[in-house]
Design brief:
With about 130 residues, the chain is an alpha+beta fold. The chain is built from 3 helices and 5 strands.
Length: about 130
């Protein structure tokens, strides 16, 4: 399921170049992933109840267009692919003019909360990739 999160660029997110700092895009993407988990009823406590935590292990991001203060952005998040213990979410940041500002592939691993080692993706999470 594809989930969207709308946000507005604030003054505190602007760097000395007058646009959103590159690290802030990563935060926007994180907010989008949190929204995706919440919308799919995979709250932190739910995952803990399944004995796992999710850990981001790789982000490949393309910065396409600068964003400025006051821009209205939409972050979309959707399942891309899944393996034994890892999965990839595809994310995009689009402005209100329909311009792609950034896109990313984010790889996460499910980690056993006790052993702190990777483990098989729980069925509840795996089902979202079917």
């Amino acid at each position: 399921m594809k989930i969207s999160l709308d946000l507005i660029v604030r003054s505190t997110e602007i760097d000395v170049n007058g646009h959103v700092n590159n690290a802030k895009y990563l935060e926007y993407l994180e907010w989008g992933r949190e929204e995706w988990y919440e919308a799919n009823k995979l709250h932190y406590e739910t995952l803990m109840g399944l004995g796992v935590q999710t850990v981001t292990v790789n982000i490949t991001i393309n910065y396409r267009k600068e964003c400025k203060q006051g821009d209205r952005l939409t972050v979309t998040t959707e399942p891309q692919s899944i393996g034994r213990s890892s999965y990839v979410l595809r994310q995009e940041i689009v402005n209100d003019r329909g311009e792609l500002c950034a896109d990313a592939l984010v790889t996460s691993v499910t980690m056993d909360i006790e052993t702190r080692k990777s483990r098989t993706v729980p069925d509840e999470l795996r089902a979202l990739f079917e």
